[in-house]
Amino acid sequence: MENTILAAVNIVKYFYDPVKVKVLNGVNFSIHRGDFVSIVGKSGCGKSSLLYVLSTMDTDYEGDVLIDGISMQQKKEPYLAKIRNEKIGFVFQFHYLLNEFTVLKNVMLPGLKLHKYSEKEVEARAYDKLKTLGIADLALKNAARLSGGEKQRVAIARALINDPDIIMGDEPTGNLDKKNSELVFDIFKQLSHELNQTMLIVTHDPDFAAKTNRIIRMEDGKIVNEEKNLVG
Amino acid sequence: MNLKLIINIAQSLLVARWRQTLVAAVGVTFGITMFIALLSFMSGLNDLLDGLVVNRTPHIRLYNDIRPRRHQPVTLWPAYQNTYPMISSLKSGNIRQEIYNSGPIIQALQQNKAVLGVAPTITAQVFFNDGTVDINGVINGIDVKAETKLFHFDDYIVAGKATDLNTVPNSIILGIALAQKLVANVGDIVQITTSTGAIFQLKVVGFFQSGLQDFDKAQSYASINTTQKILGKSSLYITDIRVKLYDINQAPALAKSFARIYGVDAEDIQTANSQFETGSFVRSLISYAVGITLLIVAGFGIYNILNMMIYEKMDTIAILKATGFAGRDVKAVFLVIAIAIGLFGGITGLISGFGLSVVINHIPFHTAALPTVKTYPINYNPLFYFIGISFSLITTYLAGWLPARKASKIDPVIIIRGK
Ligand SMILES: Nc1ncnc2c1ncn2[C@@H]1O[C@H](COP(=O)(O)OP(=O)(O)O)[C@@H](O)[C@H]1O
Ligand SMILES: [Mg+2]
User: Fold this and answer.
1) Spatial distance between the Cα atoms of A41 and A180, rounded to a whole number of angstroms
2) Homologous superfamily of A36-45+77-228
3) Which end of chain B, N or C, is less packed with Cβ atoms under 10 Å?
4) Judging by DSSP bridges, how do beta strands A214-219 and A36-41 pair with one another?
5) A 1-60 residues inside an 8 A Cβ radius of B
6) pLDDT in tens, B248-304
7) Residue A15 CB less than 6 A away from ligand 1
8) Contacts by residues B308-311 (CB-CB < 8 Å, ≥ 24 positions apart)
9) Does ligand 1 come within 6 angstroms of the Cβ of A169?
10) Highest mean predicted confidence (pLDDT) among A70-84, B71-85, B152-166, B305-319
11) Which residue among B325, B327, B328 places its CB closest to the CB of A113?
């Protein structure tokens, strides 16, 4: 379909340490532009492993990943880095920010790397994203001095800086308290509604998943069930 | 690759770890400082020791050597044209030591573009009469002006004035050790006997000290005129023409051509003093070896600190990679860090190396052998500074290369999962 932005084609992945284990056992699905999808499943069922394969960071798998129709199999490292920079925004569980930089600079770095806009423009865009997320006043603070919820919002702003085709998140609320989890979820929902941003979020929080458009359920490295959700 | 961004990231990492960075840079600074100071000092000493000889040695000396005649009568005899004569008890012939046409030769040499200056000399073997004792000595008849200009004659005069040789008739400057043997002071009269038995009285107008004791024990100087008188020769009598060139390296070639053109023997400085090169070379070699060793040690310091930094910055590296920086960008970041340390450490090293050289150059250093030297010698050759900074950049680049490569190979998945 024209509208498919991300497709997993029969993905199989093994871990060899300490013994050979098949963590992904033929995963097939595709995501359309504007989809807000969650992946749920028990801890250890392979959700993170799948997400790292889809994000192009993990290249040790069988099958194929198509991003915007282009196969990621057999591509060189600099090419994959460029894809991540341009097309994918990533939000991690442990809000990894670069502590050497200010909040603003953290958000700007992927934009500077892309080099599509001038430094001034990237800065203006970064401010814009921070404003959208309601944290513009933190822009000049050092990234190390923020609270967990604030950090995660900065990470989302960073993921948005290059207007990515898709945002991927690995339990982005997993390390936050109830209040902050809700805040972050509201942001995702806002992005989905207002910007029609495509998102693929791994979570084991059933409340979170229940509010997304589509839920992919995994068990033992396989998709066992998919539900469309018309709420949202 | 966006170099500005790379440098910007490198700078932030450096600033965040400025203490470690400083330690690494100080290692380089120390290495370069010692390298510069050591080479400048060694080279200064080399110049000084070489100067002892080279300053006073002509680049080319023209003279007539005493040797058997090349053409013996038997080789000229038609009957023996195609034979190899064996002559036993061959004696050196009565070759005159005087250089024929010395005047025109000197003029021609002075007009030669490669020649800095020409100093004609004569030598006279004499006995200095000191009561009942006769002391063997040599009087060198010199052109004081040329000698001062070309061979720094003035520098070695420790009492009296060199120019007095021209103004005071029948005057002499004695080697300091010779003067001590004769118990002669400036202003005294000494008596000499020539090899032909003639006796002269000469007025002492000064002492010189060359730094070579044996030399100072036997040598003395007088004007060419005075020496010609002592030898009973005409005012055209010259036995040696000593030539200094603009470029010492041309000496061997020019010596050959002068010998051919003027029909005299010519000896170049390289042939006469080949051993000095060796001493200088060994001293330079030692300085370079020590300097480079210091830099290599500094390089290991940088290697360690970069490795540590990479270990600490795993998260940063993983995030950079996850957000789209390629391995080569990460590698460039760490190479820029290494080179920045090298550049900063290197430049401060050059400055403090220069400072240390200046300090050494002001430390008093008196030695009887070197009357003109008051402090330790330093050669401020810009080449040392150029080599120093190049080496510091090369060492830091090499020291940074392995850690940078390691950083570029870090797998972000392992780091991001690992928490
Ligand atoms: N680097 C690794 N080496 C070996 N086994 C691993 C590694 N990482 C994860 N696993 C295993 O693979 C399985 C799937 O892990 P993961 O994808 O993290 O699951 P989830 O994210 O759903 O909790 C788990 O059993 C886990 O122990
Ligand atoms: Mg997981």
Assistant:
1) 22
2) P-loop containing nucleotide triphosphate hydrolases (3.40.50.300)
3) C
4) parallel
5) 48, 52, 55, 57-58
6) 888 888 889 888 888 888 888 877 776 666 777 787 788 888 878 887 887 887 788
7) yes
8) B308/B20, B309/B13, B309/B17, B309/B20, B309/B334, B309/B337, B309/B403, B310/B334, B310/B403, B310/B406, B310/B407, B310/B410
9) no
10) A70-84
11) B325
**Closest-CA residue in chain A for B18?**
A100
User: Cα separation of A55 and B178, whole Å?
Assistant: 94
What is the amino acid identity at position B283? R
Distance CA B126, CA B201 (A): 12
**Shortest-distance atom of ligand 1 to CA A218:** 22
Measured between CB atoms, which of A48, A101, A114 is closest to B417? Answer: A48
Report how far ligand 1's centroid is from the alpha carbon of B293 (Å): 49
Q: Give the helix, strand, coil percentages of chain B, each rounded to 5.
A: 60, 15, 25
Does A230 score more than 80 pLDDT? Answer: no
Residue boundaries of the structural domains of chain A: 36-45+77-228
Measured in Å, how far apart are chain B's first and last C-alpha atoms?
31
Q: pLDDT value at position B110?
A: 87
Tokens of A57: 């960071």
- The pLDDT tens digits of the residues spanning B58-98 come to 888 888 877 777 777 787 888 887 888 788 887 776 667 78
B247 CB-near residues (< 8 Å, 6+ apart) = B114
Whole-number Å distance between alpha carbons of B185 and B173 = 11
Report the pLDDT value the prediction gives residue A232, as an integer from 0 to 100. Answer: 47
Residue in this structure with the two tokens 């989905």, named with its chain if needed: A192
A49 Cα: distance to centroid of ligand 1 (angstroms):
7
ipTM above 0.95, yes or no: no
- pLDDT at residue B179 greater than cutoff 50: yes
Predicted local confidence at residue A1, as pLDDT: 45
Residue range B125-154, pLDDT digits in tens: 899 988 888 889 999 999 888 888 888 888
φ, ψ for residue B25, nearest 5 deg: -65, -40
Cβ-contact B50, B281 below 8 angstroms: no
Cα distance from B20 to chain A (closest Cα, Å)?
15
Contact B2, A118 (CB under 8 A): no
